[in-house]
Amino acid sequence: MKSLKEHIAKIFAKVVVRRTRKWSEKPIETQKKVFQNLIKKGKKTSFGKDHNLKSVFTHQDFINNVPVRDYEGLRPYFEKVIKGEKSVLWPGKPLYFAKTSGTTSGVKYIPITKDSMPTHVKGSRDATLHYINETGKTDFLNKKVIFLQGSPFLESTNGVKTGRLSGIIAHYTPLYLKKNIMPSWETNCINDWEEKVREISKETINKEMSVIGGIPPWVQMYFEKLIELSKKQTIKEIFPHFNLFVYGGVNYEPYRQSLKKLIGKEIDSIEYYPASEGFFAYQDSQTKEGLLLQLNSGIFYEFIAVDQMIKDNPTRLTVGEVELNTNYVLIVSSTAGLWGYDTGDTISFVSLKPCRIIVTGRYKHFISAFGEHVIGSEVEKSLKEAVNKTELTVNEFTVAPMISPQKGLPFHQWWIEFELTPNAKKLKEFAKILDYKLQELNIYYKDLIDGRVLRPLEIVVVKKGGFKSYMKKEGKLGGQNKLPRLSNDRKIVSEMTNLIVKR
Known about the structure:
17 helices, 18 strands, alpha/beta, eleven-stranded mixed sheet
């Protein structure tokens, strides 16, 4: 017998899906409305006056008046907002600052406004409703749900509440989940990630968990702790009703095999594309590739082809000008007060109507020490190929260039933590498949190998739990912190030399 909650959810899901189709099937028109609203409100701000937004009527006007900038480029405006000045980037003062760590900017404070906050909540809600509408599954609504997230405890920055995005979102738990959501507020406020995972595991181990969400590496930690405490072999033995995994923040593929092994069965999943800068996309279908780009959520999107980024004036495209299967850097202007903001993320379109994307990596996270420009999606596809063909399980990895080896040609060095350390023969096979696939995906890398500028990649095996130890040492264990997959230097791996398996 279906509960009243389930019946209402199915009806609401149909309504939301219908609304979504209306705007998603008209991407150009939808974005035009968003653009006009942004300019209308933005021209009254300090930024708007500095950039003469009152004279902006077309996208070309916008390009002429508003340059593409990252956090550093917009820092003078952010600092004014942080100091408490009103109507700097958006009318009034922000509701929150999402505090996040940047790779070059140190700590970043991203404004979340009265206009932008609802879009973060709506994105995750609509993703769930699309899942319900497509699959008809609603029983999870009556059981326990957990989202592994940062502490909901918020500080104050000149009167503006400040914290991690996931911690801010915790204050907006929908009414229909209030009684089901775990862990307790007290446990969720624990800052130390290892202690938090331990306490969460104790709280949930005897509950009927149906939905588990979070960034894959931290969910993996949670599962491992549950198995340790319960003495069971798999998560399905602990949570027989666990049938839906919700994730975002990093590519799922490198963790798919290890999580599947931990869970012990195939389950449904929903992918989000959340960021402090906005809730950009979500998986709207279990059968169609890609994530539905949120075109009606107060965000105006621009796209710059990756190979254009080295130019002084790269071509900025709108949704009506992009092509399939091209890597673009994602640029956003939004109701949070971001203007021509370079997210640093790279995406690729797999559908244009509706606009569905896949996240391919980070523009600034790549290896191009020798001109090869290897990106995140290429290393992850290569890793998937090697994992599938060798049946080895990879827990975590990062890649760095070895520019000046003691002897021989330079090479890419992969630091990999396996579930079980492979023998020398198996490791050699894994490396060979990995390198062959990478050459297939990246012609520049292949040319460098063929031209004897580089030699094939080498693997350094990291001890079990090694990456966790590194992240803990860096004060980045848990929450939304993510290990960079690619580096153009050896800063990360140089800090891990004591965490490798000696051969």
